[in-house]
Amino acid sequence: MMEIDIGAVAALGGVALWLAPGVWRRQGKAGGRALAALATVARLTELVAHIQQHRGMSGAWRSGDASFASRLPAKQREVEAVLAALCGDAALEEGERLPCFTAADVSGLQAQWRELLAVLGRLSPEESFQHHCRLLGEVLGWLAAVGEVRIAPVAAGAAPSDSVRKVVADLPALAECLGQARALGSAVAARGRCAPVARVRLHFLVSRATELLTRAAQGSAGAQARRPAEGFLLALRERMLLSASVDMDAATCFRLGTEAVDAVYAWLAQERAALEHALQSASAKAGSADGWAAQQQARCRS
Length: 302
What we know:
Blueprint: H1 6-62, H2 72-94, H3 103-119, H4 125-155, H5 163-191, H6 196-216, H7 223-241, H8 250-301
Helix pairs in contact: 1-2, 1-4, 1-5, 1-8, 2-3, 3-4, 4-5, 5-6, 5-7, 5-8, 6-7, 7-8
């Protein structure tokens, strides 16, 4: 029979006891950083939503619906406010070995945004759409990076496996797809006709949004978001794509699209709150374990 070296076992136990506080302390620190990153995710998501709305309003305005012009300044101020707030998040990221985005990135985005505003009145609806999409693509890239690098490693085992992906990828992709459909549909409605290129693009967006919605809404998840999203997609199909003429005005299209996008963002907020609770619980457990190990060390010394 194998003989057990009691002394060696005790020594190993002592080493584990001395090492444990450091491990749990690092886990607690990582949990705190993940929670800070989740706050960054919330701000990036807010920025995406504001730029999406501005894109839709701009498209309708540049397509001939003058009623949207008066709504643009307020939305522009909201974009500027979130961009300014992101400077603090960028400073936090710059403290990391590999930052997901930097203060220079935020300044560059601010410059691109102001350049867009300076020429917006001279852009065609298509040019406005593309300019906005480029800005959104950059912010969505930051969002995915922060989720993957700062949150996912800590959330593993503490939250459902798909929770981080839903918050930083799946639901933002669904909101962006619906947002593009809102912008393009509002422009088509303002013109009163659906050009072949716009029809092909809308067909793709409706199909893609339907696919993303089906994949994300498993079981009861997203039940409240599904109805307005499906209603908007149905309206695009029946009143714009399958109709001989465009049977919807720009204000109605924008309203239905906004209801759909807002419902997805409400769903995203619920998912983010659940993820935050899971991260807080994991961080609290790490803190409790660290405290217990410190007490045991003190007893060993005495």
